[in-house]
C-alpha cells in the first residue's frame, strides 16, 4: 500500500507521455487541443499522486442491520488517498480468525467474549498497519462496548492520525427487517441477535449519531457532509477536468473513464 502512490504516479506519467506523443500525429486541430489538455492533466495527476493526503481512521458503529457496511463502502472512495479508504468489516475478520469461509454460519462459540476481543484487537492492529502505510481506513463493527469505542479512538491517537466515530441509530423493527432480507452475507445476525444487542448497556455514545432508518442514499449524503467537514477526505484529485471536457475520474483504475 505504501508504494501505491508511486505506482499510480508512474502510470499517470506514462499516460501523459503517450497522450502527448499522439498529439504529434493528430491532424484535427480541435482534437489536438483536447489531447494536449489531457496530457497536461495526466502530468498534473502524476505530481498530485506523489502528495497523498494524511490518512485517517473512521469507525462506523451501530446494531446489526443499521447499515454500517453499506455506508462504509459508500464513503470509502471519497476518503483518503486514491483509490480511497480500505474497509475493515468485523464480520469478515471474525470468520477469518475462526478459519471458516465468510458465508459459513458460526455457532455460539464464534461469538464468545474471547473471540470478540480478538476480533476488535485485530481491527485495531490492521487499522494501525493501514494508516502506517499512508492509507485511510474505515472500520465497520457494532462497537456496542464503550471500551471498544475508546480503544479504536486511542489507536488513531497513537498513530497521530485524525479519527471520526459514526454511530447509526434505527428502530428495532427496521433492524430486524434488514437482517431478514440479507442473502449471501458474512453477518450471522438475526432477530434474536439484535434483541440481545439492544438489551445490553452500551454506555454513552459520544460519536456522531445518524438516523439510519432513512434510505441508504440519504444516509450516505448526510454522512458525507459530516466526513467532509473533517481533515480526512481527498481521494478525488483537485487538478480538475482537462479542457472542461467533463472527464469522470475513476478512483479504482487510476485513470479517467475515457480511453485514448
Description:
This protein has 260 residues and is an alpha/beta fold. The protein folds into two domains: 4-52 and 238-256, no CATH class; 57-228, Rossmann fold (3-Layer(aba) Sandwich), CATH 3.40.50.300. The chain is built from nine helices and seven strands; from the N terminus they run H-H-E-H-E-H-H-E-H-E-H-H-E-H-E-E. The strands form two sheets. It has a five-stranded parallel beta sheet, sandwiched between helices. Strand 6 and strand 7 (255-256) form a beta hairpin. The two termini are 28 Å apart.
Strand order of the largest sheet: 2-3-1-4-5
Number of strands: 7
Order of helices and strands: HHEHEHHEHEHHEHEE
From the alpha-carbon coordinates, what is the Rg to the nearest angstrom? 21 Å
Low-confidence stretches: 243-260
Helix content: 40-55%
Structural class comes to alpha/beta
How many strands, what sense, and barrel or not for the largest sheet? 5 strands, parallel
Roughly how many Å apart are the termini?
28 Å
Report the CATH C-level class of the largest domain.
Answer: Alpha Beta
Shape descriptor reads elongated
Q: Say what the CATH topology of the largest domain is.
A: Rossmann fold
* Name of the CATH architecture of the largest domain: 3-Layer(aba) Sandwich
Q: How is the secondary structure organized here?
A:
Blueprint: H1 4-23, H2 29-49, E1 57-62, H3 68-75, E2 86-89, H4 90-97, H5 113-132, E3 137-140, H6 146-158, E4 163-169, H7 172-180, H8 191-199, E5 208-211, H9 216-228, E6 249-250, E7 255-256
Parallel strand pairs: 1-3, 1-4, 2-3, 4-5
Antiparallel strand pairs: 6-7
Helix pairs in contact: 1-2, 3-9, 4-5, 5-6, 7-8
